[in-house]
């Protein structure tokens, strides 16, 4: 598959994303043009019983743009991947839905976000969740490993979307679920490649 992105392009995009989300790890408040935290979770229709169980310091670290769980049901005992887990809020919801017999793995490229996710997990005493550093558009899991893959506002940041979508397909069991919500670009397209790379994370 032909790529439009050089190794330097990908490194620039990764550095800019890390710079942005290091700040988000401290607090998402004021970092986005849309609601974050508990207010966003309520507006997006997340499970109210689970939401009530979250301490404010956990709920307030949410910065997604949609509710992936509105797209499909999580069953008890499922093995789930949260791609681009951020502070782990969707990971936590998935863990509570799949229960002790299930397992949820959250991956992200930003260490500071993973540190926040682990802190949130530990605050809730969850034992069916683990977090790991993401390798970007390569998933280090075997074929058919997951029942469900969720992703919230992350694919827009991935330069080569076809690559990661193929990886999702490879890692899902036959009949598995991909619960993906994201942002789309509207307005005048930036045509010059270098300018697109420079503004990618925005």
Written description of the protein model:
Helix 5 links the parallel strand 1 and strand 2. This protein has a single domain, classed as Vaccinia Virus protein VP39 (Rossmann fold). The chain has eight helices and five strands. The longest helix is centred in the first third of the chain and has 20 residues, at 7-26. Strands 3-2-1-4-5 form a five-stranded parallel beta sheet. 38% of the residues lie in helices and 16% in strands. By secondary structure, the chain is α/β, with parallel strands linked by helices. The chain has helices spanning 7-26, 37-43, 48-52, 56-59, 89-98, 111-124, 161-171, 193-198; strands at 79-83, 103-108, 129-133, 146-152, 172-181. 36% of the residues are buried.
Q: Topology of this protein?
A:
Elements: H1 7-26, H2 37-43, H3 48-52, H4 56-59, E1 79-83, H5 89-98, E2 103-108, H6 111-124, E3 129-133, E4 146-152, H7 161-171, E5 172-181, H8 193-198
Parallel strand pairs: 1-2, 1-4, 2-3, 4-5
Helix pairs in contact: 1-6
Brief sketch in words of this structure:
The chain is of the alpha/beta class.
* CATH topology assignment: Rossmann fold
Report Rg.
Answer: 16 Å
Mean pLDDT: 92
CATH superfamily: Vaccinia Virus protein VP39
Question: Do you know the CATH architecture?
Answer: 3-Layer(aba) Sandwich
- Reading the helices and strands in chain order gives HHHHEHEHEEHEH
Strand order, sheet with most strands: 3-2-1-4-5
Tell me the count of domains: 1
């Amino acid at each position: 598959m032909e790529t439009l992105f050089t190794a330097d392009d990908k490194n620039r995009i990764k550095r800019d994303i890390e710079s942005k989300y290091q700040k988000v790890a401290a607090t998402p408040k004021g970092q986005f043009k849309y609601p974050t935290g508990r207010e966003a979770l309520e507006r997006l229709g997340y499970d109210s019983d689970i939401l009530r169980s979250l301490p404010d310091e956990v709920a307030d670290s949410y910065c997604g743009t949609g509710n992936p769980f509105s797209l499909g049901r999580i069953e008890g005992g499922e093995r789930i991947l949260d791609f681009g887990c951020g502070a782990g809020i969707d990971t936590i919801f998935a863990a509570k839905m799949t229960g002790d017999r299930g397992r949820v793995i959250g991956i992200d490229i930003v260490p500071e976000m993973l540190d926040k996710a682990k802190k949130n997990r530990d605050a809730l005493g969850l034992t069916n969740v683990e977090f790991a550093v993401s390798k970007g558009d390569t998933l280090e899991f075997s074929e058919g490993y997951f029942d469900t893959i969720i992703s919230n506002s992350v694919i827009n940041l991935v330069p080569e979307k076809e690559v990661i979508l193929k990886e999702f397909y490879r890692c899902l069991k036959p009949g598995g679920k991909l619960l993906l919500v994201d942002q789309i670009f509207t307005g005048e397209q930036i045509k010059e490649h270098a300018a697109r790379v420079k503004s990618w994370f925005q």
